[in-house]
Write a structure and sequence with these properties.
7 strands, Arc Repressor Mutant, subunit A, 2 domains, 261 residues, 7-stranded antiparallel beta sheet, alpha+beta, single chain, 21% strand, Beta-Lactamase
Length: 261
C-alpha cells in the first residue's frame, strides 16, 4: 500500500508549543500507521500485535453496529477499567469546551471516507484534545484513528483508535488535528468542518483578527491596514461582542476553534 499522497495539518491555537506538538503528532502517527498498513496489507492484523506504553490505550469500534468491541489500557491512562468503556462513555468523557470541534472533525473525516472509499485503509485522523480522568482532572490526549476493515462495497466495518496521554508535552486547551487521505482537497475538507462559521466575520474583521493574533497594537494595525486607530478600536469591541469573548486570549481561542484563523 502506498502512503497517503495528500496531507492536511492545521492547529487550533497559535503558540510556540504547537511546533513541538505537530512534530510529536507526525512522528507518532507515522510509526503506528506503518505497523497497521503492513499488517492490514498482509492480512494478519491482530490487536495483540499493538504494543502499548503506560500512557497509551486503544479501542476498536464496530462501525456497522456502532459499538465498541475491544479496548485495552484505559486504567493506566484515565483510571477507568476497560469494562467501563463504551461509546457513551467515550463521548461524555471529552472536555465540554472541546467536544464540539472534536465531533465536527471526526464526523467530517468519516463522511469523507464514506464518500471516497478508494484506498481508505490508508486514511489517518489525529486529534489532540482533553479527556477527563476518573479522579476528576483533565489530561491532554492524542487520538489516532485508522480504518482496519471495509466490506466489498467500501463501507467502513471496523476502526481502531489509539489514545496517548501527551500532557507532558502539551497541557494547553488547544485542539490540534491532522487528517491524511489520498487526493484530499485540503480547503474543501477544512471548510466542511468550519462551514457554520465561514461567514461569521467580515473580511475586514478577519484581517484585524489576524493582526491581533500577531500581538499588534491598535496603532500598528491601523498603519498596516490604512485605517484609523479609532476604527480598529471599534472593530475590537465588535469582535468581542460578536464572539461573546472578553479578552484577546478568549477571542483568539474562539477563532482558532471555529477555523476563522
Amino acid at each position: 500500500m502506498k502512503s497517503p499522497s495528500s496531507l492536511i495539518d492545521f492547529t487550533e491555537n497559535i503558540n510556540v508549543a504547537d511546533i513541538d506538538m505537530n512534530l510529536y503528532i507526525n512522528e507518532n502517527s507515522t510509526a503506528l500507521s506503518k505497523i497497521l498498513y503492513e499488517e492490514i496489507e498482509n492480512n494478519f492484523f491482530n490487536v495483540n500485535n499493538i504494543v502499548l506504553n503506560n500512557n497509551e490505550c486503544f479501542y476498536i469500534k464496530d462501525c456497522l453496529n456502532n459499538k465498541i468491541i475491544y479496548c485495552k489500557g484505559f486504567y493506566n491512562v484515565i483510571g477507568y477499567s476497560d469494562d467501563d468503556i463504551d461509546l457513551d462513555f467515550l463521548l461524555n468523557n471529552v472536555h465540554p469546551n472541546d467536544i464540539e470541534i472534536v465531533n465536527r472533525i471526526s464526523k467530517t473525516a468519516v463522511l469523507y471516507c464514506s464518500e471516497n472509499p478508494h484506498n481508505i485503509l490508508n486514511n489517518t485522523l489525529c486529534v489532540s484534545y482533553r479527556r477527563k480522568k476518573k479522579e476528576g482532572t483533565y489530561i491532554k490526549v492524542l487520538s489516532q484513528s485508522y480504518i482496519t476493515e471495509i466490506n466489498d462495497e467500501g463501507v467502513l466495518v471496523k476502526g481502531l483508535t489509539k489514545l496517548a496521554d501527551i500532557s507532558f508535552i502539551d497541557a494547553s486547551d488547544a485542539v490540534n488535528w491532522k487528517f491524511e487521505a489520498e487526493n484530499l482537497n485540503k480547503e474543501v475538507f477544512k471548510n466542511n468542518i468550519y462551514k457554520a462559521y465561514n461567514n461569521f466575520f467580515t473580511i475586514r474583521e478577519r484581517e484585524i483578527i489576524v493582526e491581533i493574533a500577531k500581538g499588534n497594537t491598535n496603532k500598528q494595525i491601523s498603519e498596516k491596514l490604512f485605517i484609523s486607530k479609532h476604527t480598529v478600536a471599534t472593530h475590537r469591541k465588535h469582535l468581542f461582542k460578536k464572539s461573546n469573548t472578553h479578552s484577546v486570549k478568549e477571542l483568539i481561542l474562539f477563532c482558532n476553534k471555529t477555523g476563522v484563523i
